[in-house]
Design a protein that fits this description.
mainly alpha; 4 helices
C-alpha cells in the first residue's frame, strides 16, 4: 500500500465518519438545541459527535507523527499518548520537536522528518 493510498483511505474514512455522525446527530436534535451536560438528561448525540470530531482530529495529527517518527516503538507510544491524553500529548510532541529543531532552522523543517531536511 502506498503512502498516498493510505492517506486517502485515512482521510476518506474520517470524512465519512464525520458526515455520518453529524448527519445522525442532526436527525436526533438540531445543534442549536444542544444543552450538553447542563440539561437534565445530557444530550448524547452531539456529545458523541463532538467526541468523534476530537478523535478524528487526534488521528489527523497522528498521521503527521507517524510520518515523522521512524521507530515503531515511538509510533506506538505516541499513538497511545495522543489517544489517551489528546491535546496534552499533541502539545508535548510539538514542543519536543521545537526543542530539537536547530537554532535558526526554518520552521518548515518542523514538518519534515529529520532525515528529509
Amino acid at each position: 500500500m502506498t503512502s498516498r493510498f493510505a492517506l486517502g483511505l485515512l482521510f476518506g474514512t474520517i470524512l465519512l465518519v464525520m458526515l455520518g455522525v453529524t448527519s445522525w446527530a442532526s436527525t436526533v436534535q438540531p445543534i442549536w438545541a444542544w444543552q450538553g451536560i447542563a440539561a437534565a438528561n445530557p444530550d448524547r448525540a452531539w456529545t458523541i459527535a463532538t467526541l468523534a470530531d476530537a478523535y478524528c482530529g487526534f488521528l489527523t495529527f497522528y498521521a503527521w507523527v507517524f510520518y515523522r517518527e521512524r521507530s515503531a516503538l515511538a509510533r506506538v507510544a505516541w499513538l497511545v499518548g495522543v489517544l489517551t491524553l489528546g491535546n496534552i500529548a499533541m502539545a508535548c510532541y510539538v514542543l519536543l520537536q521545537l526543542a530539537r529543531l536547530p537554532a535558526g532552522a526554518p520552521l518548515h523543517h518542523l514538518l519534515l522528518r529529520p532525515a528529509d531536511r
